[in-house]
Amino acid sequence: MLRRRMGYSDPSSGKDILGNRSLCFIFICAFGLVTLLQQILYGKNYIKSAQQFSRLKGDETGNWTGPVNFSDDGSLKPARNGRKRCFRQNFQPDSQLSVIVTPCLADIKKKKKRYLENYDGSFEYNSTACRELRQEIMDVKVLTMVKTSELFERWRNLQVCRWEQNKEETSNFKMSLSRCCNAPSFLFTTKRNTPAGTKLRYEVDTSGILPITTEVFKMFPDDMPYSKSQYKKCAVIGNGGIIKNSKCGKEIDSADFVFRCNIPPINDKYSADVGTKTDLVTINPSIITERFQKLEKWRRPFYEVLQNYENSSVVLPAFYNTRNTDVSFRVKYMLDDFDSQRGVFFFHPQYLLNVQRFWAVQGVRAKRLSSGLMLVTAALEMCEEVHLYGFWAFPMNPSGIFITHHYYDNVKPRPGFHAMPHEIFNFIHMHTRGIINVHTGQCT
Predict the structure, then answer these.
(1) Residue that finishes a domain, picked among 98, 131, 158
(2) pTM of the full structure
(3) Residue 37 main-chain phi, psi, to 5 deg
(4) CB neighbours (10 Å) of residue 370?
(5) Which biological process annotations from GO are given for this protein (predicted)?
(6) For the chain, how many structural domains are there in total?
(7) Which pLDDT tens digit goes with each residue over 332-354?
(8) Which of 129, 158, 187 is the last residue of a domain?
(9) Which of 99, 186, 301, 353 has a 20 to 30 Å separation from 245 between CA atoms?
(10) Burial 293-310 (b: 16+ CB within 10 A, else e)
């Protein structure tokens, strides 16, 4: 009986009537049929598009988007060899269609990872490619997020885009500076913002107080010599080796107002790169101490150095600490002795404190901000448009070529005193946002 049960088989067990295997087979057939129909329809549309393109004339071009070549007679032909161009429809107010020619985005993406020197700013600021390139830099929130070489590459790629000021971003940034620092009122110590009898507190030696006597008060200007957005285009010149061989001298001299840092050389040896025009130059008291013996002996050598800057004004941080005060005052006395009409100003210590706090929020935390950053901050309130030259904080330029620290020497700054890489990182972000224009290549 047991053997009979084991040997019994159901005659319908292998038929799978409308079972899983049958349903699977039906599904595969249906999928294959749909795919075949799609391919047939795609082929018809492809042939139709090709025929339509071959008949394109005049305004009919506006109905098509794709790569084309331009022949010598100005006619449009399908792109085969040579550089591709993409064009799109543009609807004019008179309902006429026109064609706008732009570089193919696919080609741009292929080239984003290398330096596109041949383009020289040929892409518009608000083009799709440039928005993507700017976003690549803005994605780097802090300097330590990427390797320096990666940051350089992103910066190089951005150079294919023509810089354009972003009015909204610039206005918002200037409003923040105005609320915080207010350079048109407090950049320099004046008779208006620091009356006689004031007990002026130093920037660093906060426990030290300088009584503003009548003699000191006489050295101050009546009021600030500059006003808000007084100048249209300003150039702030750093002393970095990045400006060497840039041939930017003429472009710099064409600016309405030029700032320079720490009486750098601008003679014939360097003028082709850095220009000669100077409206305001800073003087670090340490330069007077080290190079001119605190002006305690001969003063003419220092006077002759200042003659290189024609009628520019000078500004010193006299109230940074107590050591700076006497040396800075001697500059004023010396110029008066030579009957010079050159303006001599002293940074207001409260302004410098406010600037330090402002940039600390932006990630620049250092014992002392650089003179260049102080001037850039002031320029943003004094000028409608600010251009930077000679600002770089790395031993290599964006192309990876080693450069000197300054354009005139290779003397390194005191370690840990400034936070130059973080300052430049902020400048790169501000350039990307359309607030300032940072020049790191050659000028045309």
Answers:
(1) 158
(2) 0.74
(3) -65, -40
(4) 23
(5) lipid metabolic process; N-glycan processing; oligosaccharide metabolic process
(6) 2
(7) 999 999 999 999 999 999 999 99
(8) 158
(9) 301
(10) eebeeebeebbeebeebe
